[in-house]
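tool_call: predict_structure(chain=1)
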Amino acid sequence: MKTGSMANNEFIIKWHSIFYQPSYFIRSGLYRYVRLLAPQLNGKLLDFGCGSKPYKALFTNVSSYTGLDIEVSGHSHKNEQIDVYYDGKAIPFEDGSFDNIFSTEVFEHIFNIEKILPEINRVLKQGGGLLITCPFVCPEHEVPYDYARYTSFGIRHLLEQHGFSIKEQIKTGNYFETTAQLKMYFVNFFLPKKPRFLYLALYQLFILPIILATCLFNAILPKMFKRTDLYHSNIVLAVKK
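tool_result:
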């Protein structure tokens, strides 16, 4: 359920990503906290909505890594590393098959989320962890299979109503980063993508300054101005009750 045309290294954010990544603030927040929380998951892991498995290398404590995805989605699965397909209704594994489950940027693409969460709960062992990410402020993507945006309260309620308790909950980004990211998306829409050298040259002129200015403001402004009721993504580590 992740954009199939994006290479894995576009999810792995390094310092030099500021020079070519138009989703820099969203991607950097996701990568930072998935990397932080991934070591807490071990044993048999299911990547639900795996796509190209961009974060697989971060899960160093797992004994097996199984990728599950839906066959019909908003992008091609060509060159993706999907081990098992499912029909969008029933997950084709026995009860308690996995010690932990990981799912990133998937829940917004599930129209019948209240039917899928019981399935996720079913194939997870008692006490197993569920690490998810889902966007709050983000343009429509993988259309027409983009159905929802969840507030921090909404995603917590959904998980608690379907047999999970919240262990950790994180918001990525703040007002400055989120508004800057939206400006970057807007500018990037108008930049010619080919030839590549022209795109990168224009990126340095029009997008890189937004990133640098936003990072500067984040560094010097007091915390009271960095409101987090407008933010990029929810990251939740929950446990099956």
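agent: The mean pLDDT is 93. Proceeding to next step.
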